TrEMBL record:
It comes from Streptomyces desertarenae. InterPro entries: Metallo-B-lactamas (IPR001279), RibonucZ/Hydroxyglut_hydro (IPR036866). Residues 121-216 form the Metallo-beta-lactamase domain. Gene3D superfamilies: Ribonuclease Z/Hydroxyacylglutathione hydrolase-like. This is MBL fold metallo-hydrolase. It holds the Pfam family Lactamase_B. It comes from the Bacteria.
């Protein structure tokens, strides 16, 4: 019996299965909405025929890979130039041949990782194509990694490259991690933060346990975010979906302090100053 790769058209989660999977575990989780029209689990060939590659360079040494039209949650896979070889963090929904060729041109992938399952995208493709020795995911999120093999489970911290360090935040998912690029001043924040953009200008921030269900983080979860993220210096953030600047450490700490001042909420907090 042959195992094939299938993606959920609703959220983009990939599964290796004997045939069309019976359901999508990510959509079935409380943090995601269910597809209103039922399951549409698409085999890889069908996904590849639907999508084309798109990429852009939001910061020096950082390339964001996307798929057009938007598929699933519409994630972005980040390729980060680093000492010792490129780090790929998060995954695009799919990597058509020209995207893989562009990554090859940029030097391939030496280390691979992700914040949590909503950012996995087609990480399995990058592992299959580039065979990086390091594939890093938080130990508490291993249940979501059936489509690829984790080679370096992350406990609390892991230096993927000089100046590029993974930190576990928990919260949104138990194993949720962020990646701090100390050299560029960028926090690859996973779903620890949601940025409301006006075009490309960040206007407000929020944080959530469950975005679709609008479940807030508990006070202890926010305290954990503050204790980890509040110690990192950055002037921009990159979620699994977009790049946003300027968003600073002070902006994010202000959000966390506001969340700790009363009843938990998912409401967005406007960024201060002239923004």
């Amino acid at each position: 019996m042959t195992l094939s790769m299938y993606a959920c058209a609703h959220c983009g989660h990939w599964q290796r299965w004997f045939g069309a999977p019976p359901a999508c575990p990510v959509c079935s989780d409380v943090r995601n909405a269910l597809p209103e029209d039922g399951w549409n689990l698409m085999e890889e060939k069908a996904v590849g025929a639907l999508l084309v590659a798109d990429w852009y360079h939001p910061a020096p040494g950082v390339t964001g890979f996307r798929a057009v039209p938007s598929f699933g949650l519409g994630s972005t896979g980040w390729l980060i130039d680093a000492e010792g070889g490129n780090v790929a963090w998060e995954g695009a929904p799919y990597y058509p041949p020209d995207a893989l060729a562009e990554i090859e041109r940029l030097g391939g992938v030496a280390r691979l990782g992700s914040s949590h399952v909503h950012g996995y995208g087609a990480l399995w493709q990058l592992q299959q194509h580039f065979a990086p020795p390091v594939v890093a995911v938080g130990t508490r999120d291993l249940e979501w990694t059936k489509a690829f093999r984790v080679t370096w489970p992350v406990d609390e911290t892991l230096e993927l490259a000089p100046g590029l360090t993974v930190y576990r935040t928990g919260g949104h998912f138990d194993g949720h991690c962020v990646l701090h690029d100390a050299r560029r001043g960028i926090l690859f924040c996973g779903d620890a933060l949601k940025v409301d953009l006006d075009g490309t200008v960040p206007r407000a921030l929020s944080c959530h346990k469950a975005y679709h269900a609008r479940v807030p983080l508990s006070h202890d979860e926010v305290r954990r975010y503050r204790s980890v993220i509040g110690e990192l210096e950055f002037e921009a953030v990159a979620t699994p979906f977009e790049f946003a600047a300027p968003v600073t450490t002070a902006d994010v700490v202000r959000l966390f302090d506001h969340r700790l001042s009363g009843q938990p909420t998912t409401a967005a907090l406007a960024l201060g100053g002239a923004r």
